[in-house]
Amino acid sequence: MTADLSTHAELMRVAHALADAARPATLAYFRASELEAEDKGVIAFDPVTIADRNAEQAMRAVLAAERPKDAILGEEFGYHVGTSGLTWVLDPIDGTRGYISGTPTWGVLISVADESGPLFGIIDQPYIGERFAGGFGVAEVTGPMGHARLQCRTNRRLADATIMTTFPEVGDALEGRAFHAVAGQAKLTRYGMDCYAYALVAAGQVDLVIEAGLNAYDIQAPIAVITAAGGIVTDWNGGPAHEGGRVLAAANRDIHAEALAILQSIANG
Q1: Cβ atoms of residues 214 and 233 within 8 Å
Q2: How do residues 61-72 score in pLDDT, each as one tens digit?
Q3: How many Å apart are CA 214 and CA 245, to the nearest integer?
């Protein structure tokens, strides 16, 4: 997308307004004893709550007022057609399993994209009050420890790496085997962080996140944030990952290449 600096500033302003609108909607039910979760999964438990729906509705209301010509793709309410060439991709609570368990590792994912992929993204953790933003020359985090520039790790070998994924099984049996082949060569493996793992890559705390079975709304905001911080996010073939599927997020190109070679050797036979 070709746009002037004023357009960039406007899109960033609206993205932060969306995050601001989603925060109270999610926090209203977080750790509430009366919260109930519906199961929308077909094979495995896939919870959704009133907080997911309220947060997405709050963000859609902001977009209706501020950017009515833009398209919207949201996890809970699907696709709304636009005419501007831009699409807002929303996951009101990424990590609902963590949300209903009371862990502060879920987040609100917001990105604005054109036909090539995400241009700007936010990973927001309302309970901690921590917001990671990236795109249009911005790579920053604001939160309890103040404001800081995001910068992925450099010069880290796989043998010294910290690697994360959400589920130990990762995806199907083959995908799980591929992940564990990479994890077996890393120094430390951690599970269950959902979108917060991607934020930690951008913050220079984690080296790799490997996942499978993702949707576009799961990964577009993390792509924008990690890329802005100097990292790389691809699919397991080294191609674009903004449509979801199998995803490899890496702090730098060297460790990405190490991990990618292992994933491909197993997943692609």
Answers
A1: no
A2: 999 999 999 999
A3: 5
